[in-house]
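Workshop exercise sheet. Pairs work together: one partner reads the sequence aloud, the other fills in the structure field after running the prediction. Swap roles for the next sheet.
Pair: D.N. / O.F.
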Amino acid sequence: MNTQWTIGIIGGSGLYAIDGLEEAEWRHVPSPWGEPSDEILFGRIGDVAIRFLPRHGRGHRFSPDQIPVRANIDALKRAGCTDLIAISSVGSLREELEPGRFVIVDQYVDRTVARPTSFFGTGLVTHVSMADPVCERLSAFAAAAVQAAGGKVTERATYLAMEGPQFSTRAESRMYRDWGCDVIGMTGMPEARLAREAELPYALIGMVTDFDCWRENEAAVEVTAIVAQMAANGDIARSAIKAFVDALPAHRTSSPIDQALDGAIMTAPSQRDPILVERNTAILARLNR
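Structure field:
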C-alpha cells in the first residue's frame, strides 16, 4: 500500500493556478479516453506531491458539457494521484448560503443527460456504490482548510448537477429547492462517479458565486457579477489548498474507496472485451497485479 499522499487538484472556474507549488512542471499525460482538458501541473508543496489539472483548460476553453471528464480522471490516475480535491463554482439554492461562502458537498442529484458517465460498459459491466459519493476524510480536511484560510464554510451540502451550458429557468431553480438541493453547478457530475470507478477518494469544495434564479422579484444574476465573485473566491481557495496540504498526516492510511472495484466487476474474465480492458489499464492496475 502507498502510504504517501499524491493530491490531485481539479481547478474549476476561478481557480486556474496553485500558489506555492515547488518544482512545478506542466506535463502531457496521454489517456486512451482522449486528450485531457490540459496538461497536468506536477509539483509539490512541502513533502506532498501535487497534480493540478484545470478542468476547463487554461484560458477556460471547455464548456461544462464538453469537458473530457473520463480523460481527466484517467490522466490523474496515471499521474499517480491517491486522492482528488475538486474546486467548483456553484450557485446557491438557499438563503443562508450567500455568495462568497464555501460549501463542502456530500451528496448529488445528477441531472446531466448527454455525458459519458462510466469507464465501463458492454463487455466489462461494473457497478460501484455511489450511496456516499465523496470521501468523508478528505471532506473534513477540506472544511478545516477553508476555515484556516479565513473562509466561511458550510458542510454537507447537496449539489444539483445540471447539463448546461445555459443557466436554470426560474421554474427549474424552484423545483431543485423543493427537492432539497442546496447548490447548483454544471461540473460535479459525472466527475464524482468517475473518480469512484477509478478508486480515487474525492471531495468537492463549492465556491458560491451567486444566488440561483429562485428568488422572488429579483433580477437574474449577470455573468459579470459571477466572474467578480469567482476572483474573490479564488483567493481564499488558493490559501485553502495550502492549508489542506499542510494539515495532512505524514502518512496516508488506506481508504475503503481504494478498493471500490472489489466485487464490482460483473463480467466473467473469459467474456471481457479486451479493448475496454486495455483502455482501463490504469483503472484496473491494482486488480491486475
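Discussion prompt: DSSP finds six helices and nine strands in the chain. What would you look at next?
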